[in-house]
């Protein structure tokens, strides 16, 4: 950089680029950002008007400092993107967060207009006074949803979840936060009294019946060499066994229910229980495949699809949820288990602002949330042909202009009346 000197002035960035590289600048935002990153390793420069209040030109540049040794290269790939530009500032605005992913989006106001629309135009929130609205998942599949709407919701939420985790990973790699998954579980210590809104604690007879059933089932599957679960994993999740591994014991838990006057209360899974829950998930997928395919043995673990591919199969999905509902209360002594996310921002304000390229305090959270909502909706619109559902009849299919097209499954979502109406509603709310 011997051809540069402190105080040197250039009429424009193009002139600076030509002086440094000997080539004419080809233009393009990406090319300029790449060149600027490299220049800043070797010298410091700024607009002349920022150092000289009498300067009127908005293009002139001045060299402020030249480094003897180039600065270390700062990786910048992946910082910009259609999702990250809006999501990462929203993540970093919260110093910490723990909860379900859809709760984060609700608190941030992502798809907030749609949630508000549901509040005003349906009975979803008829019991709002007893419900935390942030806990409502707008993509939860309801009984009266068509198969097409169910598939639309599933893919929308999968995209939200995938993008959220990808951006947490990127921010953690940049040293700006730390995050992890954890599970919550609700022990099956009560049962609802049929025909009433009340519940009653399980009696010893029912508890012993559940434990006996669990042991009989274990005796059946223990000989299967492909079984992904162990007896220890089952009992460490079962609050009625001596092997239950959690700081909150049975007596403490029932006292907590009585104190808070609730039928159920979630418990944070212990570290040992986390490993057991992972193996339980694999085993339940094994069991589902075995029942659906009427196999004699459980399928090998390496042949069990991952979560997304597995739940992409509607038959597997329905069977799995039915098995959970039927098996969990006696197999592991839990009514339900679910996964949440926790993160803590560790970067300083200076580090965050440098990473983003602007002062986070100047960002408008509502604008970010609306832009992110818009991006998700556009994504779904662009994939309506790719995402497919199983059409049962012509009731939910858009009729062709002439004649009748036979049902050929799987059918693209764009042919569904119910999905087209739902997507049109979302587009209208965000002027997509």
Short description:
The protein has 432 residues and is α+β, with helices and mostly antiparallel strands. It is built from 15 helices and eleven strands.
Question: How would you characterize this protein structure?
Answer:
The chain is an alpha+beta fold and 432 residues long. The chain has 15 helices and eleven strands. The strands form four sheets. It has a four-stranded antiparallel β-sheet. A three-stranded antiparallel β-sheet has the order 1-3-2. Strands 6-7 form a two-stranded antiparallel ribbon. The protein is elongated, with a radius of gyration of 28 Å. The two termini are 49 Å apart. The relative contact order is 0.12.
Defining traits:
single chain, 432 residues, alpha+beta, 15 helices, elongated, 11 strands, 4-stranded antiparallel beta sheet, 3-stranded antiparallel beta sheet
* H-E order: EHHEEHEHHHEEEHHHEHHHEHHEEH
Tally of helical segments: 15
Percentage beta strand: 5-15%
Mean pLDDT: 88
How large is the radius of gyration? 28 Å
Main beta sheet: 4 strands, antiparallel
Assign the structural class, choosing from mainly alpha, mainly beta, alpha/beta, alpha+beta, or little secondary structure.
alpha+beta
The outline comes out as: elongated
Instruction: Work out the number of β strands.
Output: 11
Which blocks of ≥5 consecutive residues have pLDDT under 50? none
Strand order within the widest beta sheet? 4-9-5-8
- Percentage of residues in helical conformation: 40-55%
Distance between the termini: 49 Å
């Amino acid at each position: 950089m011997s051809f540069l000197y402190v105080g040197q002035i250039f009429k424009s960035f193009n002139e600076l680029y030509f002086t440094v590289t000997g080539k004419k600048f080809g233009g393009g935002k990406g090319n300029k950002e790449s060149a600027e990153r490299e220049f800043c390793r070797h010298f410091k420069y700024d607009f002349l008007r920022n150092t000289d209040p009498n300067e009127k030109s908005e293009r002139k540049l001045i060299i402020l400092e030249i480094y003897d040794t180039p600065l270390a290269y700062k990786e910048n790939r992946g910082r910009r993107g259609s999702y990250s530009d809006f999501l990462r500032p929203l993540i970093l605005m919260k110093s910490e967060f723990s909860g379900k992913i859809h709760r984060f989006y609700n608190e941030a106001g992502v798809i907030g207009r749609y949630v508000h629309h549901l509040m005003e135009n349906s009975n979803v929130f008829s019991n709002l006074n007893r419900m935390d609205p942030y806990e409502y998942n707008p993509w939860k599949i309801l009984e009266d949803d068509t198969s097409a709407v169910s598939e639309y919701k599933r893919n929308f939420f999968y995209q939200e979840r995938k993008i959220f985790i990808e951006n947490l990973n990127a921010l953690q790699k940049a040293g700006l936060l730390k995050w992890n998954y954890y599970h919550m579980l609700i022990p099956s210590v009560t049962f609802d009294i049929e025909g009433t809104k009340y519940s009653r604690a399980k009696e010893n007879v029912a508890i012993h019946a559940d434990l006996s059933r669990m042991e009989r089932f274990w005796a059946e599957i223990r000989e299967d060499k492909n079984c992904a679960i162990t007896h220890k994993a089952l009992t460490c999740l079962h609050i009625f066994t001596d092997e239950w591994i959690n700081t909150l014991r049975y007596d403490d838990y029932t006292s907590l229910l009585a104190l808070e006057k609730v039928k159920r209360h979630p418990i944070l899974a212990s570290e040992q229980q986390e490993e057991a829950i992972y193996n339980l998930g694999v085993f339940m997928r094994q069991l589902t495949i075995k029942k659906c395919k009427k196999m004699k043995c459980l399928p090998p673990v390496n042949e069990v699809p991952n979560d997304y591919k597995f739940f992409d199969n509607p038959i597997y999905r329905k069977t799995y949820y039915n098995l959970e509902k039927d098996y969990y209360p006696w197999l592991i002594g839990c009514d339900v288990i679910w996964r949440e996310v926790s993160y803590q921002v560790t970067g300083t304000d200076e580090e965050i602002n440098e990473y983003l390229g602007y002062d986070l305090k100047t960002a408008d959270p509502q604008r970010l949330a609306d832009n992110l909502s818009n991006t998700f909706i556009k994504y779904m619109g662009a994939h309506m042909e790719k995402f497919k559902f199983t059409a049962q009849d012509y009731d939910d299919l858009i009729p062709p202009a002439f004649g009748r097209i036979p049902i050929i499954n799987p059918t693209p979502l764009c042919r569904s009346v119910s999905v087209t109406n739902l997507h049109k509603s979302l587009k209208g709310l965000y002027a997509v």
